[in-house]
Amino acid sequence: MAEVLSQSEIDALLAALSSGEMDANELKKEETERKVKVYDFKRALRFSKDQIRGLTRIHENYARLLTTYFSAQLRTFVQITVASVDQLPYDEFIRSIPKMTILNIFEAPPLEGRMVLEVNPNIAYTMLDRLLGGQGAIPEKMGALTEIETTVMERVFGKALDTFHEAWKQIIELDPYQEGLEMNPQFMQIVSPNEIVVVISFSTKIGDTTGMINLCLPHVVLEPIMTKLSGQYWFSKQKKTRDEEERLRVEERVKVAKLPIVAEMGTATITVGDFLQLQKGDVIQLDQSIDNKLKIKVGNHLKFLGQPGTHKGRVAVQIDEVIEEGEEQNE
């Protein structure tokens, strides 16, 4: 936003121009000079601001789903929120996380490539202690996970991927599955060091323990669906969803609507006097031959032609022909 000058600053500027202390042409020249901006090719931006906002919306929902999931699993207070969404080289992400941490490597077909959910050791060991019946204490010395501890962690984070599918389903139907669990970032090479990744950092609190969970999504993995991350696609998708829901509601209401259906055997015209004198056993001659098909009307509109009969001892009409709208019928 451009700086707004006060009245005293405007008066001083006009006075300087009038006295010749400042040259108007020099000011114009400075404005037209090309401004140089430093650009780091190692940090080439692959995600637009609109796409970053789209990823933020998706993972704010993901954070809420993870909060519900871990609260149920750990049976304690859990709060997870999106702290930041940044794009940076993969090598920089690796150098920013602890040398010993919990790295859940997973894939999510139909997207091709690996992604990683990194869990800070404080958070991971608090979860582990709760899952094994403890109060959520952090050990004084954190070493490598035992086979049992690894199995427990793989199971709890493997099921957490179901919430990842749920968070992304408005954009794409994913089928995520866990590929493995690693503790040393140096042994995890999911993309080349200079490849741009987007890192969603979740601020996590479990009981009295706080820490970070980082979700690393490489650009090369998300590239096929980049256009779907824009706000325009997001809102158009929501509108289509609302329109489809409204159409289904109307369709369901129409399906249960009741309409009168009448099968006409024929018609006859008699006088009021004859009508008043009708007795049981009298016969009224209709204007339709027994060889002609019955006219079946829905409301006042002729829709079908059929023939009379019986079905399981009851009077019935068999539909032989459907009358299309606008089709003329001989009376």
TrEMBL record:
Keywords, alphabetical: Bacterial flagellum, Cell membrane, Cell projection, Chemotaxis, Cilium, Flagellar rotation, Flagellum, Membrane
Pfam families attached to this UniProt entry: FliM, FliMN_C
Primary localisation category: other
Protein's recorded name: Flagellar motor switch protein FliM
SUPFAM superfamilies: CheC-like, Surface presentation of antigens (SPOA)
GO annotation terms (biological process): bacterial-type flagellum-dependent swarming motility; positive chemotaxis
Places the protein is found: Bacterial flagellum basal body; Cell membrane
Protein origin, superkingdom: Bacteria
One Gene Ontology term, aspect cellular component: bacterial-type flagellum basal body
UniProt entry tagged with the keyword Cell membrane: yes
InterPro entries: CheC-like_sf, Flag_FliM, FliN-like_C, SpoA-like_sf
Taxonomic path: Bacteria, Bacillati, Bacillota, Bacilli, Bacillales
GO molecular-function term, one example from the UniProt record: cytoskeletal motor activity
CDD domains: FliM
Protein's membrane topology: Peripheral membrane protein
Every Flagellar motor switch protein FliN-like C-terminal domain range: 253-323
Keyword match Signal: no
